Description:
This protein has helices at 5-53, 57-89. By secondary structure, it is mainly α. α1 packs antiparallel against α2 (57-89). It is rod-shaped. 5% of the residues are buried.
Amino acid sequence: MPLPRHILDAMAERRRDEAVQANRDKLWDYVLTALACFAWCAVGTFLIAWSAHTTDEVLGHAAFWGGLGLGNSGIIYTLLAAYRRGEKRGDW
């Protein structure tokens, strides 16, 4: 026996609300991930730029390679964490 129309409409409305909330959560996670990647890029760029302006050669090399390592590994870690969160949510 089919369900009454008002029950079906209520179920459809609830699912619509859940879909809107899920899309909002996904978008918010994408925005936070993009901001975190931008922050890692800024830290790496700052260290590389600082290595060009320092007068100590050893400190300059450490800052240059640290900027490359920290910037790139931070971005990779952030993107992998976002992928894991998306898998857990069922985005893909």
